Each structure stands twice: as C-alpha cells, then as structure tokens.
Amino acid sequence: MSISPALRSATRAAYRDVLRAATLTFAGDRPVLQAFRAKVRSDLSQTLVVDETAVQQQGQFLREIAGVLRRNVVQATKVDAAEDGSELYRIRLTKDTELGDNDSIKNPPPVESSRGQRHQDGQAHKCYIEESFVRGSGPGGQSINKTENNVQLLHMPTGARVSCQEMRSLSQNRKLARKWLLEKLDQLANPGLSKENMKAAKQRERERQRRKKAKKKAKKKEAPQRMEEED
C-alpha cells in the first residue's frame, strides 16, 4: 500500500520536531543528546512501516515524545556546595517547561543530590549493625595477639556477618569490615548484579577480547607462512 506524500511529510516533520526538542532539553549535555539521537534513529530504522495507519501512529508517537521532552524533562546544574558539605544542583527550566501554581515550583531552590541522601541513609542503617571487638590471633606479635583489634560486624536484619583482622590498626580494620559488609549485603540484595559481580563480568569480557585479538593476530602471522609453504 502506498503512503501519501502529505503523510510522509508530516512524519518527517514530527521526526525533526523530536530532534529539536532534544537539542533544547539536553543543551549543554552533548553525550546524552548524541545518545538520544542515535536511539531515535536506530528505533525508526528498525521499524518497517507498510500502511498509512502505522505511519500515522508513528508520527503521533514522535509528537508525544517531543511534547514530553519540552514540558516534563529538565536538567540540573551543579552549584556551590552547602555549608554541611552536601552537593546542590539548580534545575534549568525553559519556556516550555510545565509549571504548577506553587511559587517554589516556578522558582525552584537548589536541591540536594542523591549522594547526600545515600549518606544519610547509610547513617540511619548504622542502628541495624552490631559491632564487637575481640582479641586477635595468628602471626603479628603482641600488636595482634594482645589487643582487641579483630572487628566483627553483624547485620541484624539479614544475619550477614563479617570479621576483619587484616591490619594492626583497629580503625583500619573497622573501615575494611564495613566495606566487606556492604559488599556482602550488595550480593544478597542484587544476586548476579552486585558491584563485585559487575567488576568480574567486565574483567571476563576484557580477557575474552584479549584472547580474540591474540587469536586474530596469530592467524595473520600464519597466513603468509602457509602461502610460502604452498609455493
């Protein structure tokens, strides 16, 4: 079924409208803008449109995306840190941004970053950790065997427990124990997707790429030798 030139023109206009809306919304953030444009082009190139109804739906969908970008998506820029050390961001609004009637929305104050919120959450979760110190054992002399520098942490909600005696310093052992406990809780909460799992997956991918390159290089070296042998 043929598609009318007017409908094609309207769809192309909707596509250009999405790109213009993205340029306005993601101004100053070129990586995000380029990624968005590439995603739109990729999705449209993979979509096979064969009738006018589908073309109309595609054009309507593009116009809706452009509207959302203009009215409902905003960016934030980092401003000076607050007195307590937390990071603050100021929201950048445009003339098309959808605003409410509240003055605090029309003139938004700087908001605290999620990093500061995570720090507050971490402080709140300390009440769920039971910490104890016991006398160390093993090699290390009196600094290990006659001092209570073995740090043991118990996360009461999950029952996760860690013990650290890596350093002679009690404060260093406390830091390490908390790090290990966080990693253990991450694995419990995100099986297969924890930070350590992702690091291991990246390392495996790097090793796979290295082996692939080495194999390809070896094949290139073997090719001239085979030609000489055949001659």
UniProtKB/TrEMBL annotation:
<comment type="similarity">
    <text>Belongs to the prokaryotic/mitochondrial release factor family.</text>
</comment>
<feature type="region of interest" description="Disordered">
    <location>
        <begin position="99"/>
        <end position="123"/>
    </location>
</feature>
<feature type="compositionally biased region" description="Basic and acidic residues">
    <location>
        <begin position="196"/>
        <end position="208"/>
    </location>
</feature>
<keyword id="KW-0496">Mitochondrion</keyword>
<dbReference type="InterPro" id="IPR045298">
    <property type="entry name" value="Complex1_LYR_LYRM7"/>
</dbReference>
<feature type="region of interest" description="Disordered">
    <location>
        <begin position="187"/>
        <end position="231"/>
    </location>
</feature>
<dbReference type="GO" id="GO:0032543">
    <property type="term" value="P:mitochondrial translation"/>
</dbReference>
<feature type="domain" description="Prokaryotic-type class I peptide chain release factors">
    <location>
        <begin position="128"/>
        <end position="220"/>
    </location>
</feature>
<feature type="compositionally biased region" description="Basic and acidic residues">
    <location>
        <begin position="221"/>
        <end position="231"/>
    </location>
</feature>
<dbReference type="InterPro" id="IPR045853">
    <property type="entry name" value="Pep_chain_release_fac_I_sf"/>
</dbReference>
<protein>
    <recommendedName>
        <fullName>Prokaryotic-type class I peptide chain release factors domain-containing protein</fullName>
    </recommendedName>
</protein>
<dbReference type="Pfam" id="PF00472">
    <property type="entry name" value="RF-1"/>
</dbReference>
<dbReference type="GO" id="GO:0003747">
    <property type="term" value="F:translation release factor activity"/>
</dbReference>
<dbReference type="InterPro" id="IPR052405">
    <property type="entry name" value="Mito_Transl_Release_Factor"/>
</dbReference>
<feature type="compositionally biased region" description="Basic residues">
    <location>
        <begin position="209"/>
        <end position="220"/>
    </location>
</feature>
<keyword id="KW-0809">Transit peptide</keyword>
<dbReference type="InterPro" id="IPR000352">
    <property type="entry name" value="Pep_chain_release_fac_I"/>
</dbReference>
<dbReference type="GO" id="GO:0005739">
    <property type="term" value="C:mitochondrion"/>
</dbReference>
<dbReference type="GO" id="GO:0034551">
    <property type="term" value="P:mitochondrial respiratory chain complex III assembly"/>
</dbReference>
